[in-house]
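Q: Hi! First time doing this. I have a protein sequence and I read that you can turn it into a structure. Is that right? Here it is:
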Amino acid sequence: MADLGTKIRRRVHRQFKHVFLIRHARQAWLREVFRCQKEIAASNPHPHYPRAYRGEEIFYWLHIAKWIYEQRDHDHARKCLDIGCAYGTLALYCRRVLGCQTYCTDLIPNYMNPSLAASNGFVFRVNNIELDPFPWKTSFDLILLTELIEHFNFHPVPTLEKIRGLLAPGGRLYISTPDALRWGREGHYPTYRSMPLPTRDTPYVDRHVCLYDEAEVREIVDAAGLRVVTWDYSPGVEERHLNMVIARVGDGERAPDSGR
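A: Yes, that's right. Below is the predicted 3D structure, encoded as structure tokens:
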């Protein structure tokens, strides 16, 4: 059971979420998130979306949505990729805010509603980013990897190297993931260093396999030839999540994202 300090912290988180939504409801980026959620909810999505996920998801990647909106005049993103797109909120958000061609992949096919994908011109494929060949021969100006690296079954660096190869020059990778300093070391592996390299000989599981703190995300990002541009904490539902903007090592600097 959670100790008293954890219970108090989680209560503060719940209060913060209500205050945040009230204070920022008129901001353009948040209104656009809500419009995207409304469209998804009207598309007869997987029942978990209206029942729970719709009210939770923004607190996982709150800063990412804000950063994308703030950088819209600098990004000029023509192609966006959402890896592990789930119900498609951020994919739809990027389509609306940036006007980009949007590609989506997920290991689970029944989260993304086909009618939503068709009506917004999404190019969708079922794909395991860790094990499968990537389905398109193109590069992307913006890649989303939200709430996914904690589900990686294998050592994350080879997959991040694969993703680095998908980034166009000057492109950005956006990552969100639960912060292990608050969530604890739940999952099968206490550290990513214990994880095996990608192989089809290991049965794949869909759960939290390994959690990361900020220093560990920096380690795997650096090892993959990437760099953290900026980062911040998003409140999450009960505990905080890391939000990061990442670029390829050697790419020229652009207008800075706001954040830490």
